[in-house]
Amino acid sequence: MVLARLKNKAFAKLYLRLIKAEVKETTNTMKPLLNEVYLTFGENKINNAIKKIYINGKNIICPVSGNEGQILRALEYGTGKTKALHIISIATRKILKETGNYEFII
């Protein structure tokens, strides 16, 4: 899933690190609301899945396949017992909105 398309690749790695940190911080803050996700996957697997967000060209990509993709989808869209909190897309917008160096895909 493409989170954002950068207009300019300058500072792309910095944006990526900031987005990952924001997703991790927001996930920890919303831990009570994500109780089902934490019980299902565990904190270490959630943190490892967040690390899998990457840059491909000018795009910031969130994997959707495999075990990490399942965890990231749960953070974004929720599960059967957890409502959709859109943690990843909100964190991406929060980091990139001030720079103007992006086009949102989600």
Notable features of this structure?
single chain, 106 residues, alpha+beta, 5 helices
Instruction: Supply the helix-strand structural class.
Output: alpha+beta
Read across the widest sheet, the strand sequence of neighbours is: 2-3-1-4
Unreliable stretches covering 5 or more consecutive residues: none
Give the strand tally: 4
Percent helix among the residues?
40-55%
Which sheet architecture does the biggest sheet show?
4 strands, antiparallel
Q: Order of SSEs, N→C?
A: EHHHEEHHE
Tell me what you see in this structure.
The chain has 106 residues and is of the alpha+beta class. The chain has one domain. The chain is built from five helices and four strands, in the order βαααββααβ. Strands 2-3-1-4 form a four-stranded antiparallel β-sheet, with helices on one face. A hairpin with a 2-residue loop joins β2 and β3. α1 packs across α5. It is elongated, with a radius of gyration of 13 Å. The termini are close together. The model has no long low-confidence stretch (mean pLDDT 88).
